Amino acid sequence: MAAGALRGLVGALETHRGRDWAVRALSYGCQLAGGALPGPAGLPGGLLAASAQLSSCRTALRLFDDLAMLRHSCSYGLGPEGEDALVRGLSVLCNVANQLYYPCEHLAWAADVGIVRAGSQKWWTRSTALWGCALLLGILRSLRILFQLRRKLSQHKCSSSSPQSQQKLRAQVKAEVLSILMDAADLSNAIHWLPPGFLWAGRFPPWLVGLLGTISSLIGIYQASRGANSEEK
Asked: What is the distance between the alpha carbons of residues 216 and 21, in angstroms, rounded to a whole number?
């Protein structure tokens, strides 16, 4: 069992997505620990610096994510015809927001390193706003799917449906609830990183940003591992 778990971990870390989740969790974990420990110097300062460097590493790696996102958007298109119209519309809008997010972040990064002569802050704000919009659309989509699943579960309880189908529906409900929690945690941080004056922008202490990001990352890692196990079966 231990050998199998180790192979699964190594296999996940060898993929771009798996490594990104690991770096993300480590970055937010360092921010959580650095913000919670007393004093800005010494270990707390080192942990916060490590968190910033890991975050910059992820930003640089996202320079190569545009085409993967474009392939996903084109593959989904306007959504399958059998899918709920509201879910399809929210999914398309979410894909558009995610697609526009990448070039805005790339321009912000290029301005920071001096490749382009432009103010980076406005591009960071735009990329964060697009990320927040995508997260909000994802939450709304998951709520709509959750509503449909709950209705199906009620119908199955009144009928003589098999326990396997009910178990499958409950697993889908659990996945959507976790997605909502993950996106809500990220959305809270996204709003914090917007310019001050909008809701709670700029008001979170570092440890709270780290806590929300760690929760989101752990949920993402759990869902990714569950998805990989399902594919193996």
From this structure: 10
The tokens describing 141, both together, are 């989509």
Pairwise CA distance, residues 68 & 88, whole Å: 20
Q: Closest Cα partner for 149 from 123, 177, 121?
A: 177
Find the distance separating the first CA and the last CA of the chain, reported in whole Å. 16
The structure tokens listed for 27 are 């970055």
Query: What does DSSP assign to residue 63?
Result: G
pLDDT digit string, tens, across residues 38-54 = 877 889 999 999 999 99
DSSP per-residue string spanning 126-162: HHHHHHHHHHHHHHHHHHHHHHHHHHHHHHHHHTT--
What type of residue is 78? L
Residues 6+ apart with CB under 8 A from 6: none
Residue 195 phi/psi, 5-degree rounding, is -55, 145
Largest pairwise CA distance in the chain:
66
Whether residue 94 contacts residue 137, with contact meaning beta carbons closer than 8 Å, is answered with yes
- What is d(CA 30, CA 48) in angstroms, rounded to the nearest whole number? 6
Span 101-123, average pLDDT: 95
C-beta separation of 120 from 104 below 8 A: no
Cα gap 124→155, rounded to integer Å:
47
Question: At a CB cut-off of 8 Å and minimum separation 6, what does 121 contact?
Answer: 108
How far apart are alpha carbons 221 and 10 in whole angstroms? 14
Predicted TM-score of the model (pTM): 0.91
